[in-house]
Amino acid sequence: MKFKILFISLFITAISFSQNKGTITGILTDKEANNQSLPFANVLIAGTNIGTNTDIDGKFSMSVVPGNYTIQFSFIGYESVEIPVKIIANQTLTINQALGSAGYKLEDVIVRASTVSRQKETALLLEQKNAVDIKQSIGAQELSRKGVSDVATAVTKTTGITKQEGTGNIFVRGLGDRYNSTTMNELPIPSNDPTKKNLNLDIFSTDIVEYVSIDKVYNGKFYGDFAGGNVDIISKEHKGKSFLKFQLGSKINTNALKVDNFNLLQGYGALGFTNRAIPSNPLTQYNYKTNQLENKAPIASSYNISGGTSFKVGEEGKISIFANASYDNEFNSKSNGSAKGSVSGTGVANKNYHTYTDINYNTNTTGLLNLGYKINPNNTVNFNSLFINTSTQSKKEYSGYFADGGDGGNALIRRNEYNKNALWVNQLLGEHKFKERSKFNWGLSYNSIKGDTPDRTTNTLNKVAAGYTLLSNAGSNNRYFQNLKEDEVAANLSYDYKFSKTEEGEYKGKFTFGYSGRVKTRNFEATQFNFKSDNTHLSDIVDPNNLDLFYNQSNLDNNYFKIITFRGDQFESSALNPQFYKGDQNINAGFLNTEYKLNKLTTVISLRAEKIAQKITWNTQLDPITKSSQLDKTAFLPSIIMKYELAEKQNLRLGLSKTYTLPQFKERAPFLYEEITQVYIGNQKLYASDDYNLDLKWEFFPKNEELISVTAFGKYIQNPMNEVTINSSTNDISYVNTGDYGYVTGAEVEYRKQLLNIDTENSKKLSAGVNVSYLYSNQELNSNKVKKETDFEVDFTSKKGKFTGASDVLLNTDLSFFNEWNNKKSNLTSTLTYSYFSDRIYAIGTLQRGDIVDKAFGTLDFVAKSKLNEKVGLSFLVKNILNPTINQVQENTNGDVNLLSYKKGLSLSLSINYQF
Fold this sequence. Notes:
With 916 residues, this protein is mostly beta strands. It has 9 helices and 51 strands. It has a 22-stranded antiparallel beta barrel. Strands 1, 2, 5, 8 and 9 form a 5-stranded mixed sheet that branches.
């Protein structure tokens, strides 16, 4: 009994004591960085061991018994500040403090924490926890740890995202290119591929990336052409001490090393800047470049230099400069390959190539310049200029049978192709604060891209007893020239106004209203010159490795062959007019976001209105009379995001929205894109889809570096668009609204855990992460709808089916060990990563044929990165360790038919860097 009385007395005393405490709260900011929040700073009550750290937003809060104290604010590189305070029971004291530089010597250290905060995994997790938006981010630290060298691979390390094999195209929750969008610093960037909406993310080196943000839940700040997700690439800027860093490396591909003769078409420079154009008098004179091959040593190299500095301007101003320049190349080969073209429902192929090889040489030259000008603590302006030049030179060979030649499986088709893309992005960004209530942000951009395929050669031969002969069917032997030029101007304007101030000095609500606009123009031209042999020379024996012996000026003059285009033969003056299409797209939008926090519930309600105009004008092989088609749409796009703080480390989030999906220029232009095994044509009557989106997410942050989250999501799409095989003599693939509805539902689970953390003089950490997604998709497939709405006919094999690109299961997992020594001047990080996706549909089955399916496979990579001392670092990567066979099949009722099969080989790279 006495024990119970004593326990109750102590309990009441404890309650009374806690209730009599006062609270100190506030925000620490950085004077040297435009009064931005200062995360991870120290807040301490002098003479006690009571203290805390600021969070990602610079906020802090702690409870103290009543009395007179001195509160200390400190952070490395900053002046420490001491403020006397009086704490009163049951009252909250708010102190907002700005910390300044501790002196010129330490000035460069000042913003290192701010810089690292956007690159470190712990800081991005903390930002994810505190943000209202539902998003994921992957920073420079995690990218380095996992050996990620490009943005396409970076985003696949996050939940629910996978990449299409052999490309930089990504699928977000089973939704492909047309459903996603790409931005850089929240401004749009163009595509480098005439057949795609989004830029190939492979070309973005992570050397220029601070972090990548992936938004899979829509809110009013984005353009409404959004159903899968938006990838926002945040470019690096200089924050920290001055530095200069050099890096060089080498890479090999095991398949490429095994190729007896790694030979590609002559005449293209190693740097990837070679330009070619249609030669003069191409129909009557043979002025084409050589068709001969040259050997290359398949050992790749890479070079990188980066640096940054900053200096003061006046009393409050500061200019910072960051620059990066890099060049790298690589040699790849696909081995053990086979390929088929269109296959009937009974398994008969019109093209059956028992041998398929693909060797290629790729280059990437990147330059980034960032200039930051802090006019004063309330006004900053940033300028970004990014230039990326990429090239791919490839030789693809197919040996076997096709319907119009190669009797007995003796055909040989060789395609030599060179693709060159030059992207130039220019951005001007500004931020202006007006007292504590309001802020104005603006951004302007001008983007330009040139995507060229200069002088692609295709040759089709038959093997006979004496050697090889040239096939003379229309287009079997040709040279092809393609040019794309796209220009876009875009603007973002937004104004924030805070309202409903509390006694503690915080604001419960915020209005954000603004404008977004973009004007885009694309010009696309293509000309194919077909070399048609005269009947009297069809049996001439030729050398596949030296076709210049047959295709030359003398033989052209002697009528061994003639050169024609789709418009006519060599005597027609109009024959040189290229096929073309021109696309113009204007989008103007206004939006209003209202954010309000009531206790633990924060709600953001958005309304966005957009006016869209898309016009296509064309004159092509399929339609040689100039025509145009207009698509207009007015969209009202409401959305709501709610965040409820279940506990200090737990959140429950809800997102609801309406969006749309636009068809792309190439999908509406009746132009013929010819691959060796497939042919694509546009559909001018394709129209936009409407999308309805739902997300529900629970997340728990046990520790700074740990996360557990579970997400359920659903998407309902009206009039979904798909790639399908239309009824035609050549079984062409086009784009149609395949039914009235489709939907995707699924769940995502993410778990990050620190298994070991020995924080002594020499730290040791073992951590693991895994994220898994399960998707279920279904859509109506309505042949009558397609016939009614288009000029095409489609006979779907099934009345319902999955979305193309949707895998039922996606998995990413990694295990990392970090060891630090030499007073933390040296370290080693070793990471093993594994990624897997289950079967996914590549194209929907028609005419009793089954769906074309990319079969499941997994990828295992190993990364080791070491900092030998304060200046020297090493990196070693082994990618595709398992080297699985990549298969694409057609799932017919009587069994799967393999359409494409190959292995990529292992990739090994070693690099060294030195920093001054």
